[in-house]
Amino acid sequence: MENFRQSIYDLVVETSTNLPYDVRRAIRQAKERENAGTRAALSLATITKNIDMADDNVLPICQDTGMLTFEIKVPIGANQLEMEKDIYEAIRQATKDGKLRPNSVDSLTGENSGDNIGPGTPIIHFHQWKKDYIDTRLIIKGGGCENKNIQYSLPMEIEGLGRAGRDLDGIRKCILHSVYQAQGQGCSAGFIGVGIGGDRISGYELAKKQLLRDVSDVNENEKLAELEEYIMEKGNTLGIGTMGFGGEATLLGCKIGSMNRLPASFFVSVAYNCWAFRRLGVELDAETGAIQNWLYKEGEKISFKNDEAAAASESDTEKQEEAREVVLQAPITEEQIRELKVGDVVVINGDLHTGRDAIHHHLMEHDAPIDLNGQIIYHCGPVMLKDKDGEWHVKAAGPTTSIREEPYQGDIMKKFGIRAVIGKGGMGPKTLKALEEHGGVYLNAIGGAAQYYADCIKKVEGVDLMEFGIPEAMWHLKVEGFRAIVTMDSHGNSLHKDVDKTSFERLQQYGEKVFS
Ligand SMILES: O=C(O)C[C@H](O)C(=O)O
Ligand code: SF4
């Protein structure tokens, strides 16, 4: 198995940097559904530009390495202990090379292992089979979309849809609701895998395994095929759209599996995956470990480069009519903030400081390492590499889900005089109120567009609180032309609140029985 380690390294790098062909096709279809010039269409254009950039530069599509999960089928007699060791080494190397962010964190101490290896990470499932080659599939599933997974226990009352019983119609309600509750926070448009039955653990596992099915795959079970089609159609009428900005494309794929359950339990488990649906596979020679065949690469490989030019010229004219563009450079005054309204596009030049979960928690009780008065905080955990001269370089730097900072954000802004925060998915009522009282603004960047934003970062000025690890440290960055959309302003307006409300109203249309 002299080539096994190299093959796994290639699989890891390819999965992190190059989206599968079936996923590209689904994104292309979503693009075709959105009208040129809308926020959703512009966001999708950023997403597809990012997909091409990651591919061209062999760098992470999204900064979040997520949970690496391997599903490996081996012939009888394959040495799984050796394979496991090689997988660890391949992951260590890919992390060193900036293809993965160090993402494995001790749950009690918060310490980052630095190489993606630790108790529980990565996840490796071996299965024996009768064939003579090794089938290895890898899913890199990000934390933000993982947080939008949901499990229902039937029978139950589902908000907006009423009673859901232990039947196909009850299952239908659970799945539709799962799409609604994700809003844009898991970087919609997304894919869902659904597991019906099992126990709480195996139900989720079945849901995640559905994500291994090709997007074009039609369910062998007729009833489930019908349900998948129904969810695809109705899910896309909820109007959540790309990044939860509203729009026609909310769901890119829905795959449903079923297994037996216990008489007392009836779980419907949903695994939500963002548009950055990184899963690939390889077939390996069992003797040498060399790659014989790549999976999820059938058919034509879509590159979005050609659409870009056409879309850019079309949407530029409309964008000028629709959205106002405002240039911001820190330090920002309260007056500048009060002028901004939901829908404005902000172009940031100058200083940005990253801060995510650990920093927000820390700042509640400590002073900030620098003066944050009038500054902009970016909810971001980048992929960084240090060169020989000790200088840091940004390899990927998209936004993280902001709602996790909801308990802290308003207080932190007031305490330090911060005027703007950039993130994705929006924030809740507590932050909205603080923005109004203090004079602050929430800016939404496009989730997963890690190469697109890394390109705007011209210099790493420094870093503080490195003890929290690379993703959680406070990075001081100089940016140029960093674009984001005002989605919560200082006048009590929130696009996220509005989209939630209208999508809930649409969800309520689907309370009547459909499947018997
Ligand atoms: O951890 C991150 O950088 C992002 C995360 O995947 C998220 O979606 O919030
Ligand atoms: S930031 Fe968005 S695209 Fe990236 S892993 Fe998280 S949910 Fe997925």
TrEMBL record:
Q: What does this protein do?
A: Catalyzes the reversible hydration of fumarate to (S)-malate.
Assembly description:
Homodimer.
> According to its UniProt record, which protein family does this protein belong to?
Belongs to the class-I fumarase family.
Q: What is this protein called?
A: Fumarate hydratase class I
Q: Where is the composition biased (Polar residues)?
A: 104-115
Q: Which reaction does it catalyse?
A: (S)-malate = fumarate + H2O
Report domain Fe-S hydro-lyase tartrate dehydratase alpha-type catalytic positions.
Answer: 6-281
User: What are the alphabetically sorted keywords of the record?
Assistant: 4Fe-4S, Iron, Iron-sulfur, Lyase, Metal-binding
List the InterPro entries: Fe-S_hydro-lyase_TtdA-typ_cat, Fe-S_hydro-lyase_TtdB-typ_cat, Fe-S_hydroAse_TtdB_cat_sf, Fe_dep_fumarate_hydratase
Documented EC number(s): 4.2.1.2
Report whether Iron-sulfur shows up as a keyword of the record.
yes
Per its Swiss-Prot or TrEMBL entry, what cofactor is needed?
Answer: [4Fe-4S] cluster
Enzyme class of the recorded protein, top EC level: lyase
Which one of the record's GO molecular function terms can you name?
fumarate hydratase activity
Q: Which domain of life is it from?
A: Bacteria
Record region (Disordered): 99-119
Gene3D superfamilies recorded: Fe-S hydro-lyase, tartrate dehydratase beta-type, catalytic domain
Coiled coil where?
none
Q: Which residues form the Fe-S hydro-lyase tartrate dehydratase beta-type catalytic domain?
A: 305-498
Membrane-spanning segments: none
Q: Is the RNA-binding keyword given for this protein?
A: no
